[in-house]
Amino acid sequence: MAKFQVTPLTPTIGAVVEGIDLSQRLDNGQLEEVRAALLAHQVIFFEDQHITPVQHRDFAARFGALHTHPLYPGVPEAPELFILDNHKDNPTDNDSWHTDVTFIETPPMASILYAKHLPPSGGDTIWSNMKAAYEALSPTFREFLSGLDAVHDFARGFPQQGIVAAGAGAEKHAKALAANPPVLHPVVRTHPETGQDGLFINYGFTDRIKGLRRKESDAILNMLFEHIQKPEFLVRWRWKDNAIAFWDNRVTQHYAVNDYLPHRRIMNRATVLGDRPYHRSRMPAGVKVAAE
């Protein structure tokens, strides 16, 4: 069996995977090659993929159970997927740095995004490597952060007056808000497969650091929100029709560039659930740190 070709896009994050057809069911060896590329590069890209929503869902489900978003509309043929359809009458609110669905106790391990319809230009997505961002901090600051937990809040990412809430309707938003109370996650997360540490805060959902006064928390979080945007940690992907991005949600953040309105951009996303985040110094019972 020929191996896939994996071409890094930067030394820090991102790679293009060639020699694979995701409309076909991968065997276990191929699946492990894809997983290895994901772990090595944090976000991997596949071009010229012609997959149905059911094939998209089934590929994602090979990596774990899928999360159904409480607000976004689902794809009729595969309701586990959801649709991001942005245009002049439905502008995006994804133009902020975020890690997907960290407002639940077991945030996604990965997301898989498929380009269905693109604007003539623009609409790129940028990813940032949280391991690299963490390692660029001073050792003293890293040690301080590793003992902290932060509150992740659905209401911060999806406020009642926001675009997504308005599109979903007041009743659906209220139900989602009641079902997703704030949760605590470590500020520094140990990756369950690589054993490496990375920042696990994001502007989209991280509201405050537990145990600190609000001004103290805001000062630290705002510094980190700015820090993760350094070009050294980033890869920017220019979308093509039928391209797919597959990212490790445990060690990345991303930003959807909002520069294409009034043109339309339609994407389908599958979201693979993960495990409860932990730091190596405070592991849950029975969990072993993976070898780095």
Report on this structure.
The protein has 292 residues and is α+β, with helices and mostly antiparallel strands. It has eight helices and 16 strands. The protein has helices at residues 28-41, 53-61, 130-135, 139-145, 154-157, 163-168, 170-179, 214-227; strands spanning 5-8, 15-18, 43-46, 74-75, 78-86, 108-117, 125-129, 149-152, 183-186, 188-190, 197-199, 206-209, 234-237, 244-248, 252-256, 265-273. The chain has an eight-stranded mixed β-sheet with strand order 1-2-3-14-6-16-5-4, with helices on one face. The longest helix is centred in the N-terminal third of the chain and has 14 residues, at 28-41. It starts with a strand and ends in a 19-residue tail after the last strand. 39% of the residues are buried.
Q: Which SSEs are present, and which pair or pack?
A:
Layout: E1 5-8, E2 15-18, H1 28-41, E3 43-46, H2 53-61, E4 74-75, E5 78-86, E6 108-117, E7 125-129, H3 130-135, H4 139-145, E8 149-152, H5 154-157, H6 163-168, H7 170-179, E9 183-186, E10 188-190, E11 197-199, E12 206-209, H8 214-227, E13 234-237, E14 244-248, E15 252-256, E16 265-273
Family: Belongs to the TfdA dioxygenase family.
Domain TauD/TfdA-like: 5-271
EC number: 1.14.11.17
